[in-house]
Amino acid sequence: MQLTIEKYNPDWKKQFEELRQELEELTSTLHTDIQHIGSTSVEGLSAKPVIDIMIGVNSEDDLDKIPILLAGNQYVYYEKYNEDMPYRRFFVKLKAKPSEWSFPEQINKGDEIPEKLHDHDLRMAHIHVIPVGSEHWLRHIAFRDYLRTHPVVLTEYQKLKEEIGKKKWKDGNEYNDAKNDFIQDEEQKAIRWYKDNKSRI
């Protein structure tokens, strides 16, 4: 598949705010911290036009309270990813209810992901639910803020995204794997920088 990589769009901030308000209402029974992450959260950076959102919860005990709260609201829950990433719950927000494309609302371990569900043109957002204060929460926030404040690194990342954006990929996961070496290297620098500068950010 050929993924659509677009130049930075200021409307991505507005789209995030609208989604944040919706998610705050849906998860109002829990204490959450909802953050815009990923490339669409960094001004000047090209990205797939799909908003990455991280919902922070108090503890791992709260992770499995989220799926029922999002059910029936254009979200597909990828329960099958829980085994490999037990610290996270992952959802895709679609542009219409899953039933309009005959998609299930939940994809369990052993289920095949419908081929058409890999189509990013059908997606509005990726939702990552992670405990606040965990190493995984930290690395997402640190990398975002590092890119926002380090233009040389942002430029390097932009060039990489432009290169791999021209290629065809099996799915979004394969595209993400192509960025993995760069991200992992820069994340370590970002985490050290973030810990040293957190009080000034």
Automatic annotation (TrEMBL):
Gene3D superfamilies: Beta Polymerase, domain 2. InterPro entries: GrpB/CoaE, NT_sf. Pfam families: GrpB. It comes from the Bacteria. PANTHER family: GRPB DOMAIN PROTEIN (AFU_ORTHOLOGUE AFUA_1G01530) (PTHR34822), GRPB FAMILY PROTEIN (PTHR34822:SF1). This is GrpB family protein.
